[in-house]
Each structure stands twice: as structure tokens, then as C-alpha cells.
Amino acid sequence: MQKIVFLFLTSLALNSYCQDTFSIVAADSLTREVGSAGASCVDLFQTSFTDDSFLGDLLPDTGAINSQASYIPANQTNARTRMRAGDTPAQIVSWLMANDVGSNSSVRQYGVVGFSGSNVSAMGFTGTNCMNYKNHVSGSINGIYYCIQGNILLGQMVLDSMESKFRNATGDLACRLMAAMQGAKMIGADTRCNTNNTSSLFAFLKVAQPIDAYGAPSFLISMRTHNGDSIEPIDSLQTIFNLQKSCLVSNVNELKSGPAFKLFPNPVSDDLTLRGNSSLVGSAYSITDLAGKKIMSGKIKQETTLIHTGNLPAGLYLLHVPGSKPQLFTKN
What we know:
Blueprint lengths: L1 H15 L5 E7 L5 E7 L15 E4 L3 E7 L3 H12 L4 H10 L9 E9 L2 E8 L8 E7 L2 E7 L5 H13 L4 H11 L18 E7 L10 E6 L8 H12 L16 E4 L6 E6 L7 E6 L4 E6 L4 E5 L6 E6 L6 E5 L1
Antiparallel strand pairs: 1-2, 1-8, 2-9, 3-4, 4-5, 5-6, 7-8, 9-10, 11-12, 12-15, 13-14, 13-16, 16-17
């Protein structure tokens, strides 16, 4: 019985005190998209969280909320309720400060953006007892309102770099959010990850269109790594991003994708099927992890080729064929 109680308390501590060290939340007044991105030096494999993006709450065509520092799900739920009731970001932050579930708003951090008719606004909050370095910045550009916040940071330069990259990026809201994440890609951005030689241990990015259902954003990518892997999750996130989106204003200079191929099933447990046209027969393929390390290779002997992946550890991988765009697959 004592062992069960200890395990419960340990799990509770991990889940109620999860730090999302740097994050950004944004809303586009023109497209009415809302988005969130963030990262932290928390090993999510050691927690019960299955959604890497749990700290960002997107309410399509309404707003978005990032809840971090000493994270408590009930505070996030209350913020969502207030947003659905029509409160502005400023009113939501004020309410959360006065009605903190743990009666200690000084250890919380929030970033909130929201629509009020055709108006958009952003509001941040950083509790005085959040871990240093801590701060938040907010602003707008071309009708896009944003709030960037962080704690346990290397310094103000992390937030400033994120803001600069976000404001100077080209492309849609997702492109700006990805640029902001790149702005935080520095060793020890979350100071706890200094010994891991990375900015963080997990990263996520998601954007909801106004017609999306709650909890099902049109665009959602994430990456989690183990402490000690020394794999930069923002680089891995960028790799996944590039496979799904282009941030080029013009496609005139975009490289041709080359011969296309399909992979299935995806996710895969054992045998992965590669299917392409006859031009691919005789070509070599390779499988790499998201850091670019080659895991295995082989030759495409016919239009439909089976690739045995049973020995691969669970995770995300890229399959490369010369002249074609790499494709991402998940190994269960």
C-alpha cells in the first residue's frame, strides 16, 4: 500500500509541476487561425503525458492559451471556460490570478490570445516565483497578435530571438511559429538542458483553422527525446515541418520533388511497404532518424518492396530515395 501511495505522489508531482520553459501563442486576425508552439527540458517519457502539446490549448476561431511553469490542468480548464464565456485575454489572466486552483498564482505563467468580434488581443503573465530567468513579451505584426513566455531560461535573449524570428518570418502562421522555435535553438535555452547540449527535450507546434473541431487542429507536429540523447528536438521538429509545409512565398525556385512513392502502413509495427513507379526499381533507399543518422539501407527491387522494420526501436524515421522527397513514418 505504501508503495502505491509513493508511486501516485511521484506521478502527481511530475504532472502538476511540469515546466514548459519557452513557448509562443498567436492569433491571425485575417485568417482567424490560432496557434501554439513550445519546448521544455522535461523528459516526457518519464511522465504520463501522451500529448506533447498538452500545454497549448487551441479554441478554433476563439483563441489560444499556453499554461506553463507549475502546470496544473485545472487552471488550463478554467482558462478555457473563461475564454468560451467571452472573456478577453486580459480578463482571463486577471481571473486566473484571482482564482488559482493551487492558491498560488505566483508560480504560474500564461500566454493568451483571443478574438473579440473582429478585434484581437494578447496578454501574458509571469508569476514572481517562477524560476529565473523568467519573463514574457507580447506584440503584433500584420494583424497577427502573439505572446512569448519563458522560465528557467538562459536569459532575455531567448525571448528576444524568438520574437525577432517570428516577426521577420515569411509564410503563414505555422511558418512564423516554426521560425520562433528556431529562435530559441541555443544550448541551454532551458538551462537544465545545458549538459544535454540542447535547448530542450521536447518541442511541439500546432495551428487550428477556424473550421477545425476542438482538440483536432489541422496542423500538429511534435518531437520528444530522452534525457541524455543529446538530440536537438527543434531540429527534429523542423525536419518534420519541412516534410509537411513550405514557407516559400513563391514556388518558382522550389525544387522538384522527383519520383513519388508511398509508404504504408504508417505507423508500422513490422513490415513497411514501399510502393513507387518503375523508375524507382534498382534505386537504393535508406532510413535515417530525425537527426540524420543512417539506421538501415537497401535496394528497391520491384515496384512494391517490403522493408522489415521489426528491429527498429519505436520512434520517428525518414525513408530516403534518390530524387524524391523523404517521407516520415512512425515505428510502433
